[in-house]
Amino acid sequence: MLLKQEQVKDPVKLANAIHVTKDEAKQVVFKMETAQPVTTYYVQAPTVEQAAKQTQQDIKREDPSLPKAATEKSDRTAVVANTDEQKVDVYKINLDKPHSILAGVTVMNNGEIYETVGYEDKRFEGLAHFKGSEFKGASALVKVVRW
């Protein structure tokens, strides 16, 4: 998506532009203020705004002349015409995904093996243990430390 410089500085405008919550937009604004580009790409255009539009189109087409970082998959890609510095900034935004479905195996000290499925929501994790289709028990975990 093509953004104006003032949109990436205002969490409310950014939230509306990239379809995220205001809290997520605040985090994105904070990260954008300190983020450094991973690569530099030059394009000929009469204005920064036109360069931004061309860059956005090149990203959509996955133009092979673009740096790999510009075409990497992400939840959101923001192309910003930075008129203050006469350049185009490309931000790859990956949003926090607080929900997960889990699958695995539980091995008991008596040698029994159970299929395990679970659900994770940020700090909480619930697991259900099965032997075949027979429910054998459950576990509940809370994340104590994150890094």
Secondary structure: elements and pairs:
Layout: E1 2-4, H1 11-18, H2 22-34, H3 48-60, H4 68-71, E2 76-82, E3 87-93, E4 99-107, E5 113-121, E6 124-131, E7 134-142
Parallel strand pairs: 1-2
Antiparallel strand pairs: 2-3, 4-5, 5-6, 6-7
Question: Care to give the gist of this entry?
Answer:
The protein is built from four helices and seven strands; from the N terminus they run βααααββββββ. The protein has 147 residues and is α+β, with helices and mostly antiparallel strands. Residues 53-77 are annotated as: Disordered.
How would you describe what is shown here?
- It is a single chain.
- With 147 residues, the protein is α+β, with helices and mostly antiparallel strands.
- Helix content is 26%, strand content 35%.
- Strand 2 and strand 3 form a beta hairpin.
- The chain is elongated, with a radius of gyration of 22 Å.
- The model has no long low-confidence stretch (mean pLDDT 87).
Major sheet: arrangement of strands:
4-5-6-7
> If helices are DSSP runs of H or I spanning 4 or more residues, what is the number of helices?
4
Overall mean pLDDT stands at 87
Which percent bin holds the helix content? 25-40%
**Low-confidence parts:** none
Radius of gyration: 22 Å
What best-fitting shape do the alpha-carbon axes yield? elongated
Instruction: Quickly give the structural class.
Output: alpha+beta
Q: How many DSSP-defined strands?
A: 7
Strand content: 35-45%
Measured distance between first and last alpha carbons: 31 Å
| Helix-strand topology string | EHHHHEEEEEE
The major pleated sheet works out as: 4 strands, antiparallel
Region (Disordered): 53-77
Biased composition (Basic and acidic residues): 58-76
